[in-house]
Design goal:
Elements: E1 2-6, H1 10-21, E2 25-30, E3 46-49, H2 55-60, E4 68-71, H3 76-89, E5 94-98, H4 102-110, E6 114-116, H5 118-130, E7 136-140, E8 146-152, E9 170-177, E10 180-182, E11 195-201, H6 208-213
Parallel strand pairs: 1-2, 1-4, 2-3, 4-5, 5-6
Antiparallel strand pairs: 7-8, 8-11, 9-10, 9-11
Length: 218
């Protein structure tokens, strides 16, 4: 698979090296030549100096045969422009944009452009480990109709079947126990400290607190 990456910061350079290591071909664009030093001397992909949303530069990077594009510069506007050009001009299906503003991220998710809102993701993870507040969202599908949540169940669930957690609009995807994840089975029973990964429909989001604490009958 050929991938075009725009932005050779820490995220872009790491992504480029990982993809190359997995056997993919990579072209990476950055407006600063010094940025490519992060790739190391052994990088075998293409490194191009230029503006990432410039169509000619994208063509030089092989976007016409690319199966995926990642826009991971430090600017929301640049990443949005790259994502839209890749999708609308060149018809690339797999487009991911790094968006710092979570409000913008939500808008572009609904338009079918996958986004990574780094700050929001980090804040939610830290907050979840400080207070047991609302559900922390790990992933939202582009239509915003299904979310993947990570929740630790209340003690009232201990001894009950894991699949009893399921309600209309809520499905157990996986269970993490003692640092290891497993798929749920009919026989698997909740133990203290279990963390659930739940696929939740938007219509059921308001029930998650009650379900996790055991206030909904199973």
């Amino acid at each position: 698979m050929h991938v075009v990456i725009v932005g050779c910061g820490r995220v872009g350079s790491t992504l480029a090296k990982n993809l190359m290591g997995d056997g993919h071909s990579v072209a990476i664009i950055d407006r600063k030549p010094v940025a490519f030093e992060r790739l190391g001397a052994n990088f075998a992909g293409r490194a191009l100096v230029g503006i990432g949303f410039d169509r000619d530069r994208l063509i030089d990077a092989g976007i016409e045969r690319a199966e995926a594009v990642a826009a991971v510069t430090n600017g929301d506007n640049s990443n949005i422009l790259v994502a839209r050009v890749a999708r609308e001009t060149f018809g690339v299906e797999r487009v991911v944009a790094r968006i710092y503003d979570p409000r913008r991220a939500a808008i572009y998710q609904r338009l079918g452009i996958a986004t990574v809102a780094t700050a929001l993701w980090t804040v939610e993870r830290v907050q979840r480990r400080i207070v047991s507040g609302g559900p922390a969202v790990e992933w939202v599908d582009p239509s915003a109709k299904v979310s993947l949540l990570e929740r630790e169940l209340g003690k009232s669930w201990i001894g009950h079947r894991v699949l009893d957690v399921e309600q209309p609009g809520v499905r157990v995807v996986a269970v993490r126990r003692l640092g290891e994840s497993m798929l749920p089975t009919a026989e698997l029973v909740v133990q203290e400290g279990d963390v659930m990964y739940l696929a939740v429909a938007s219509t059921a989001m308001g029930q998650i607190d009650a379900i996790a604490t055991g206030r909904v009958s199973a």
